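Async update (no meeting this week)

Hi team, since we skipped the sync, here's where things stand on the single-chain job. The sequence we agreed to prioritize is pasted below, unchanged from the tracker. I ran it this morning and attached the output directly underneath so nobody has to dig for it. Comments welcome in thread, and please keep replies under the output.
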Amino acid sequence: MSVPVFGQQEPKQSFADKLFFGGNLGLQFGNTTYIDVSPLVGYKVTEKFHAGLGATYIYESSKIRFTSGPTFRYETSHYGGRLFGRYYVWENLFAHAEYEYLNLGYPDPLYDPVTGQIEKIGITRQNINSIFIGGGYAQPIGPNAAFLIMALWNVNEGVYSPYVNPLFRFGIVAGF
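Output:
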């Protein structure tokens, strides 16, 4: 004897339905100007696992005052990209892992060989690799959007790292 079984079938989502967009915007003004523009695009591999990539551009301008000399202003840019994975462990709580590559420009004092005094500030470039782990919370703010807050730890923080542990991020993601 056979018994027919009927079930509800989830409507199949298209590739575009599984995409989401977002990012971070950071602004600081005053003695130090810091502007961070970091867009991202992600894909919902499953309902619980999301992965994606993003770009980062940071503009920095600041003054440096040396104890034995004048004050110098410098400007620099940092740029790069990142890959991330996010797994929702319970409702809106998620674990997050990320790899980021940045080309970092940092101030480098240039000395006058005759006087031994600093004559100007140059910019030296350094490639930085960061690995972040942590977690966060996604607060829905509409049918296809959420506000995210994350706490991350840079597990290979180094001398030239532009981040101080822990790192807190706030952002918005939206799908269409």
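Quick observations from my side:
The longest strand covers residues 118-142.
The chain has one domain: 17-175.
Reply here if anything looks off.
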